[in-house]
User: Which sequence fits this backbone?
């Protein structure tokens, strides 16, 4: 029963609002020691688990790289680039990203975008710069631009990924329907996802057009 002490460590750690990663690591170590495993074997088990799942964990290596790029002016350069473009608006920037995001997701390249690696360091600053090119942007509207940038990424990948036949969501839908006695092929699911993706594309493009008008109107009201 001593091996269950790891559960108590998890409960206590979460109750004290400690770092979840440290709590889970501590629970694993305590469980291993309680089971009579040597500390070296416990650490070796951590290493083996990381090595076996390295292709899943490698995405986290992108985050330090993004942090370094931001530290050395990635956002500033993105804003400068947009300010040099005539006719660029927040909505148009997001439209271009939305189209690229949905198309690449439909091709199975969903990892090309994302909040951490694209929206925060590049897309959101570019949209903000375009929105304030003709005047100051109110803080509330700035947050709205950031939220719309994040929403654009979510909508693009959500409706685009189902078009790719081998994506996890398609396989999940097939498994769920099969459990209910409904047999469909992944190809059929992908084909039926195309009209949904196209409709989502049109609807969000309209939303971004209205968003552009709203940003311009509120900027004028704030400067008046």
Assistant:
């Amino acid at each position: 029963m001593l091996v269950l002490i790891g559960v108590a460590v998890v409960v206590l750690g979460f109750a004290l609002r400690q770092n979840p990663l440290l709590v889970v690591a501590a629970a694993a170590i305590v469980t291993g020691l309680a089971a009579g495993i040597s500390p070296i074997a416990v650490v070796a088990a951590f290493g083996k688990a990381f090595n076996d799942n390295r292709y899943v964990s490698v995405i986290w290596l992108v985050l330090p790289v993004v942090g370094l790029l931001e530290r050395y002016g990635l956002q500033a350069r993105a804003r400068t680039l947009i300010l040099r473009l005539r006719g660029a608006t927040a909505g148009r920037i997001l439209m271009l990203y939305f189209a690229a995001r949905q198309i690449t997701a439909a091709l199975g390249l969903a990892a090309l975008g994302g909040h951490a690696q694209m929206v925060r360091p590049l897309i959101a600053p570019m949209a903000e710069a375009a929105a304030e090119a003709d005047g100051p942007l109110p803080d509330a509207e700035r947050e709205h631009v950031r939220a719309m940038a994040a929403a654009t990424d979510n909508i693009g990948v959500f409706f685009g990924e189902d078009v790719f036949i081998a994506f996890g969501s398609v396989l999940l839908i097939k498994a769920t329907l099969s459990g209910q006695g409904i047999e469909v092929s992944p190809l059929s699911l992908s084909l039926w996802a195309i009209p949904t993706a196209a409709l989502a594309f049109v609807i969000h493009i309209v939303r971004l057009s209205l968003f552009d008008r709203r940003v311009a109107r509120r900027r004028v009201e704030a400067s008046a």
Summary: The chain has two domains: 2-52, 81-223. The first helix runs from residue 5 to 15. The radius of gyration is 23 Å. Residues 35 and 80 are 58 Å apart (CA to CA).
